[in-house]
Amino acid sequence: MDFNPLDLILHLDVYLDLLVTNYGPWIYAILFLVIFCETGLVVMPFLPGDSLLFIAGAVAAGGGMDPVLLGGLLMLAAILGDSTNYVIGRTAGEKLFSNPNSKIFRRDYLQKTHDFYDKHGGKTVTLARFLPIIRTFAPFVAGVARMPYPRFFGFSVLGTILWVGGLVTLGYFFGNVPFIKKNLSLLVVAIILLSLVPMIIGLFRSRFSGSNSKVESR
Fold first, then answer.
1. Distance (Å, rounded) from C-alpha 70 to C-alpha 27?
2. CA torsion through residues 103, 94, 206, 212, sign
3. pLDDT value at residue 1
4. Contacts of 66 (CB under 8 A, 6+ apart)
5. Cα(181)–Cα(187) distance, rounded to whole angstroms?
6. Measured distance CA(82)–CA(107) in Å, rounded
7. Is residue 216 in a domain?
8. Which of 12, 115, 192, 198 has its CA 20 to 30 A from that of 21?
9. Which of 11, 12, 7 is nearest to 27 (CA)?
10. Mean pLDDT of 174-201
11. Considering the domain boundaries, does residue 36 fall inside one?
């Protein structure tokens, strides 16, 4: 099978099975690294975290991995990633986003997370777990805002348990249901689209409210 990013996303189950077969226990380190990078490095918000967790749970159900070890390691990866991202935000702050033309440190992503943070406060760290892109920037913004670390850590742990635990468990119990297994590629796309819905709704609401404000000011 030829490798390309889209193929990887749509056939995570195939690739993960191959990785388990070829690398054995090293698969835990690979998955740990992917989840850590998605949550801990601001430059990698595009990694397929949601679908990867679900597929990993399904593979574990088939005997490819130990579900308890898998869940524990991925929770640790997400918490360490969040903390790393928080430290980067607290120390480097908005200097990383000073270039408005940057293709990597995009200010529109940062602004969306700022808006979400202003609306939900500390809960952003927990809620953002279920929002692609925003979950990568939420710890960074919490660091920029200098949220006390113990408070940040509490929200991070709660979000991690719900996100990793929830998706791995769903994958473990439902990923190998015949209908789901047969249509796994469509399910991966559905998971990605559903995870984007709250962000899209929020974007429309902000634009709509902005338009109303302009009309009222006339």
1. 10
2. negative
3. 47
4. 60
5. 9
6. 20
7. no
8. 192
9. 12
10. 67
11. yes
Distance CA 132, CA 217 (A): 34
User: For 38-97, how does the pLDDT look when each residue is reduced to its tens digit (9 = 90+)?
Assistant: 888 866 555 667 778 888 998 898 888 999 999 999 999 999 999 999 998 888 876 776
Provide the whole-model pTM.
Answer: 0.73
Answer yes or no: is 215 within a domain. Answer: no
Closest alpha carbon to 152 in 141, 163, 161? 141
Q: In terms of residue numbers, what domain contains 177?
A: 5-210
**How many other C-beta atoms are found inside a 10 Å radius of the C-beta of residue 173?**
12
Cα(152)–Cα(34) distance, integer angstroms: 22
**Residue 156: what pLDDT?**
93
Q: Can you give the pLDDT at residue 58?
A: 87
What is the number of other CB atoms lying within 10 angstroms of the CB of residue 208? 10
pLDDT at 115: 73
Which residues, in sequence order, are CB contacts of 26 under 8 Å at separation 6+? none
Tell me whether residue 12 is exposed, middle or buried, using C-beta atoms within 10 angstroms of its C-beta: 0 to 12, 13 to 18, 19 or more: buried
- In the chain, the largest separation of any two C-alpha atoms, in whole Å, equals 65
Asked, for residue 128, whether it belongs to a domain, the answer is yes
Number of folded domains that form the chain: 1
